[in-house]
UniProtKB/TrEMBL annotation:
SUPFAM superfamilies: lambda repressor-like DNA-binding domains (SSF47413), Periplasmic binding protein-like I (SSF53822). Pfam families: LacI, Peripla_BP_3. PROSITE patterns: HTH_LACI_2 (PS50932). InterPro entries: HTH_LacI (IPR000843), LacI/GalR-like_sensor (IPR046335), Lambda_DNA-bd_dom_sf (IPR010982), Peripla_BP_I (IPR028082). Residues 14-71 form the HTH lacI-type domain. Keywords: DNA-binding, Repressor, Transcription, Transcription regulation. The lineage of its organism: Bacteria, Bacillati, Actinomycetota, Actinomycetes, Pseudonocardiales. This is LacI family transcriptional regulator. The keyword Transcription applies. Signal peptide: none annotated. It comes from the Bacteria. It comes from Prauserella endophytica. Gene3D superfamilies: 3.40.50.2300, lambda repressor-like DNA-binding domains.
Amino acid sequence: MAENRSARVRRGRPRQAEVARLAGVSQTTVSVVLGGNKQGIVLHPDTTARVLEAARELGYVPDPAARRLAAARNNLLGVFSFTATFPTAVEHSYYPFLVGVEQEAAARGYDLVLFTGSSAGAQSGTSGALERVRLADGCLFLGRHIPAGELRRLVEHGYPAVHIGRRDELDGLAWVGADYVEATAEVVRQLAKLGHRRVMLVREDDDAPASTDRERGFREALATAGLAGADPVVRAAHPAAEITPAWLRDRYAEGVTAFVAEETDTGAAWRALLAAVEGAGLDAPSDVSLALLGSPPADLAGRPQPTGFDIPRAELGAAAVRALTGLLTTGEAESPLVACAFRPGSTAGPAPVH
């Protein structure tokens, strides 16, 4: 008999059915006893003792996954990115978000599930493309362009969701975001202090909240500083084709001495601006000043550090986890704005005599 019991233990985790056979009771009774008899069922003390002794003899330990399912919670947080592939490379701009998410989730006792296979379907608006995230108790979403309809359905059905990045357009969707308005305004103030009177913003031609926030901060700071002139914002659908050396020379001839670009997933606006300055035979910062509203792409890390600001990605990831766990525990979550730190860099200097 002892040999048979040892064989049971060696072949894997003992199950409640084995405890029930050894104790001579039903599996339901084992479940009640090992679950702490929260139902208050009357059991003979000898029955309880036999179950506990059988469990000890077999080395039974509760299955954590089963306990979580019984409590209707998995202690799993989902992370879903709307990029074509999930950003796990260190050089990817989204990677620091994941670092903050992982650290905060671990500190709060949650595991993570990375949803990698639905991005294409979600982007195309395929019905049910996001339903897989229900495997997790709640989910974090990140990405510049989102399938609003699919995400709205999840939120309307009461699924806990938090977007990393401001998303006012979806009622009920909690979010955490960087304070791009104030960070951009600070960059403009710094350029104004350097004597620049004509400053131009180059941004991509879409309505992503991160872009509109930057433009808002840019325009408000120009107005506060009393910097007038022609429309200072260029929306480029194809930056590489539109922000050319000829275009830049024309703007420079008109008196623009500082150019500002936004950071995006591709860095297209910043790349185009750098190429245009070089192609025009100008130098930053002696001829023109350049500023980047965010961090440069990883492949441009060897270039001079741009003046601008740093996005607190790890802090945003951690704040998103706090917001999501707040939804899970209290049903409420704030939508905080996280401050960005100004980066002096080396691409902006005093305005040239023009």
